[in-house]
Design a protein that fits this description.
about 25% strand, 17 helices, 4-stranded parallel β-sheet, 6-stranded antiparallel barrel, about 750 residues, 35 strands, alpha+beta
């Protein structure tokens, strides 16, 4: 009996194939075989939103090959990814490959390991049409929005634009943050730090807190308020009035979901979300670890999930590993079970190492740098999530100077717990306004401390930070906008469309993105409404759970959308919308204006805004900066025709020197390498040259004034018979001959015996 297993990825297929016997053949469909047509809407809006799917162009040969395999097989296992998209791909495979229902078996697994694959084969099921319909509903919604809104933007703004259900919301989020930053008014405030010294000579710093008599915190809003306190405290002793010791328990972060993995990889590894998901896919599909580790393995579980659940088996393996490596005190007294937020899909586990005992360091040499970094991050986070909490010893100290309280606080790690492996990072800036996290020396209540100086400092409140990929993904997740599989493509799309650009790690809206957002908010408020978009995700979940139908969800959406679209097409004209050019900081050297960004057939470039009076343009780098032309290297020679400087140029046959007055003067001279060998005829340097057909030969640098030339390599050796120069013959053998044609000296000697010039 022949069993055919169809997976999406060739890599994953290769991994699974190594786990199954000779009666199984594993092949890859390489993603979707069918999709909606690109040239038309492909949706019958009048007939229950019936979708017209076609075979994807370029996949004809693959489909024919897969059909042949299907005909040979007795049973067919559809092993595409364990999510909505994977379920839909299996459904499309049934139609595209004409698979008889009685031969089709749907299987899923959360990790590409031998145990998981074999267990999945033993537990096949039918295709879940609720999951398929949820995927179809999302695809149809996005197609309707994209294909109906884009023509509106072409009519009112300019051609080539696009709008999307989630991308428009993501752009709006970034635009609104930019508006908050512009509207922000900085507020002045002051801090005062005092440097103190104990009787034992230990120094530390404390910060002004407030008034001693009322024990209230006091804000310093201007220099005068700060100066009054500084004057009162300068040169005065400080007395320790209160020491408060405490204990703080710090719990580990849960294992990764898709969004938290993308956020943490951005913070700790500086990975963009697209890079994170690419590497995670490689780790999931399987990598060859050699015979030492049993061949090919999938290293992590499925990487598109918003679940925090882990299997009992994985928890038990983690427990044994932690107790053995770190000691029983480091394993949580009570097994840690994390609850996902409401609305999260619990079909898959959280992202974790497929084999928790496989430490990153042990396989580092078998992974690429990115694979190792991401695997270590996932492994560290999972192991830490199962460990005991950390115990911190905290201390907060109040010090009195005149009538003012200064306060400082800090902590020491009493028991590291999970912090021995991993500690979560955040997007928020570290705030030490109250003198927290200071390592304090030993002192007692009532002790008087020496005042080494009191220093005021002016500050201004800062506007909210621009979104990074990490913080935007967190916002999308918190608001329920999109799903784990959509975050990365959404961010990639709005950047490629020119609605958002990167500045370092920050996401900044372009002027085009701001215009599009304004139009969308005015004409299509539902499409860019956060709650509306989040509720649509809930509606898709209802379809998957069998609580709603695809047709009901699509009908409810389209009725309202069509009214907004019809009104917008009738009321808005192109003359009403002005998209200003993006101004750069590049100064036009012809007229002094700041150049603007334009789009051409070869991409973006900088152009003078005074066109057509000034037609100056400049190429731009991908980041939007002016492409600075490298200054030519001045040659140590003058032009032999006009006496001008010669500069180094690069041509199709290598480097050469050309007159700096080109094209007025077209004198050129080939760039040559010296051999470190003197010409036997005139004593000048010997150099490399190129003849016809780019054939290299050697000659005197004074050629043609000196006629010395040779196809064979000159050396610094003398002929033992006549004293002339020895030449190294071309060829595999190391043969030396005399340059003198009348001398018959010829020798084959070891390489090290001959002084051959350095050609570098």
């Amino acid at each position: 009996m022949l069993n055919l297993v169809i997976m999406e990825s060739p890599t994953k297929a290769s991994t699974a194939n190594s786990y199954l016997g000779s009666t199984y053949k594993v092949v890859a469909c390489k993603g979707h075989l069918r999709d909606l047509p690109k040239s038309t809407l492909g949706i019958d809006l009048e007939n229950n939103f019936e979708a017209h799917y076609i075979n994807i162009r370029g996949k004809g040969d693959l489909i024919r090959e897969l059909k042949k395999e299907v005909k040979k097989a007795d049973r067919i296992f559809l092993a595409t990814d364990p999510d909505r998209e994977g379920e839909a791909i299996s459904w499309h495979l049934m139609t595209a490959l004409a698979i008889p229902p009685e031969k089709a078996h749907r299987i899923t697994f959360n990790e590409v390991t031998k145990t998981a694959v074999k267990n999945a084969i033993k537990s096949p099921r039918a295709i879940d049409m609720d999951m398929v319909n949820a995927q179809q509903a999302r695809r149809i919604l996005d197609r309707i929005v994209g294909y109906k809104l884009s023509p509106f933007l072409w009519k009112t703004v300019k051609s080539g634009l696009s709008a999307g259900r989630v991308q428009s919301v993501a752009t709006r989020i970034i635009v609104e943050r930019e508006n908050e930053i512009r509207a922000f008014v900085p507020k002045e405030y002051w801090t005062i730090d005092a440097d103190l010294e104990t009787a034992g000579g230990k120094s530390f710093q404390t910060r002004f807190w407030g008034l001693a008599d009322t024990k209230t915190k006091m804000e310093l809003n201007n220099e005068a308020e700060a100066a009054e306190i500084v004057a009162a405290c300068t040169g005065k002793p400080f007395v320790v009035t209160e020491i408060r010791n405490g204990k703080k328990i710090k719990n580990p972060a849960p294992p990764f979901t898709t969004s938290t993995l993308q956020q943490e990889a951005s913070r700790k590894l500086n990975f963009q979300s697209q890079r994170t998901m690419k590497v995670a896919q490689e780790l999931y599909e399987g990598l060859s670890l050699g015979s030492e580790f049993g061949g090919t393995h999938g290293l992590i579980t499925y990487m598109r999930t918003d679940s925090l659940r882990i299997s009992d088996e994985a928890r038990e393996v983690a427990k044994n590993f932690i107790c053995q490596k770190y000691g029983e005190d480091y394993y949580s007294a009570k097994p840690r079970i994390y609850k996902a937020k409401a609305g999260a899909q619990d079909a898959h586990e959280a992202i974790r190492p497929a084999d928790p005992t496989l430490e990153p360091a042990s396989i580092k040499k078998l992974l690429t740098s990115d694979q190792y970094k991401l695997y270590k991050l996932i492994w560290d986070r999972f192991i830490a999530s199962q460990m005991e909490s950390a115990e911190l010893a905290t201390v907060q100290t109040d010090l009195l100077c005149e009538k003012y309280i200064y306060r400082t606080s800090g902590y020491t790690v009493k028991f590291p717990g999970f912090m021995a492996v991993y500690e979560e990072s955040t997007d928020e800036k570290k705030n030490d306004e109250d003198g927290t996290n200071t390592r304090l020396p030993q002192f007692t209540e009532g002790e008087e401390l020496k005042n080494l100086g009191v220093v005021p400092a002016q500050h201004f409140t800062e506007p909210p930070a621009r979104y990074t990929e990490a913080s935007l993904i967190k916002f999308l997740e918190d608001e329920g906008i999109g799903r784990p599989s959509t975050y990365t493509p959404t961010i990639t799309l709005i950047i490629s469309r020119g609605y958002v650009k990167r500045e370092g790690k920050s996401l900044v809206p372009t002027q085009l993105g701001e215009v599009i957002t304004r139009i969308m908010c005015e004409q299509f408020p539902d499409i860019v409404d956060y709650k509306f978009t989040a509720n649509m995700e809930d509606s898709l979940d209802d379809i998957e759970n069998g609580e709603s139908t695809m047709n009901d969800v699509l009908t409810a959406f389209y009725d309202g959308f069509k009214k907004e679209l019809d009104a917008a097409m009738e009321n808005v004209s192109k003359e009403e919308i002005d998209v200003p050019d993006e101004v750069t900081d590049i100064v036009c050297e012809h007229c002094g204006s700041l150049m603007v960004v334009k789009n051409g057939r070869f991409g973006k470039f900088a152009a003078c805004p005074n066109y057509p009076n000034c037609k100056n343009t400049k190429p731009l780098t991908k980041s939007g900066e002016a492409l600075v032309e490298k200054k030519p290297e001045i040659a140590p020679m003058k032009c032999e025709l006009c006496g001008s400087d010669m500069i180094l140029r690069n041509g199709r046959y290598g480097s050469f020197y050309a007159c700096s007055r080109y094209p007025e003067c077209k004198f050129t001279k080939q760039k040559v390498k010296t051999l470190g060998v003197k010409c036997p005829d005139c004593g000048a340097e010997l150099v490399t040259k190129y003849g016809k057909n780019r054939t290299m030969f050697y000659s005197c640098e004074r050629y043609p004034n000196c006629n010395f030339s040779s196809w064979d390599l000159p050396t610094n050796e003398k002929c033992p018979k006549c004293g002339d120069m020895l030449l190294k013959k071309k060829g595999k053998n190391h043969i030396l001959v005399c340059r003198n044609a009348q001398c018959d000296y010829k020798a084959e000697v070891p390489e090290e015996a001959v002084s051959v010039p350095d050609m570098e």
